[in-house]
Design goal:
By secondary structure, this protein is an alpha+beta fold. It has 2 domains: 12-70, Rossmann fold, CATH 3.40.50.2020; 72-129, Ybab, Chain: A (2-Layer Sandwich), CATH 3.30.1310. The protein has helices at residues 24-34, 52-63, 98-103, 108-129; strands spanning 44-48, 66-70, 72-77, 80-89, 94-96. The strands form 2 sheets. It has a 3-stranded antiparallel sheet. β3 (72-77) and β4 (80-89) form a beta hairpin. The longest helix is centred in the last third of the chain and has 22 residues, at 108-129. It is globular and about 45 Å long.
């Protein structure tokens, strides 16, 4: 089942607004309304540790879906730890946004240092955050 794959789903009434949701659980409820076609399916909801889990839990509960935790660590810019250009999963899987790497002028040594920092924080977070997968 893959309804809506490759499509952007939006609620125009939420565009250009701040403080749209009461909290993360409310965000999950709104998202569940947008993804109602998945209700009761075999879809798996993944919550990203450090903020995404409450959204995912609310979404999974509302749609009767399985929930798991995606333990990843953001690969950040050396001068701005809020901006990421990639992620490392607890199992070592790496994804980089090469366009950002190029636009920011990051050299191979800077990218490797960023990846190493992300790997260091992803492993312990996995131990603390995950139980067995569903």
């Amino acid at each position: 089942m893959n309804p809506g794959a490759g499509h952007v789903i939006e609620l125009p009434e939420l565009r250009n607004r701040g403080h749209v949701f009461r909290d993360r659980a409310h965000a999950g409820e709104v998202l569940a309304g947008m993804l109602a076609e998945y209700r009761g399916s075999d879809a798996l909801v993944l919550g990203i540790v450090a903020g995404g889990v409450p959204v995912a839990a609310s979404l999974a509960r509302a749609l009767g879906l399985a929930l798991d935790v995606a333990v990843v660590s953001k690969v950040t810019l050396p001068w701005n730890t809020e901006m990421g250009y990639g992620a490392v999963a607890y199992d070592g899987t790496l994804r980089l946004n090469e366009d950002v790497v190029t636009r920011m002028g990051l050299g191979p040594a800077e990218v490797e240092k960023g990846i190493a920092r992300a790997r260091e924080s992803a492993r312990p977070a996995a131990t603390v955050s995950r139980g067995p997968p569903p």
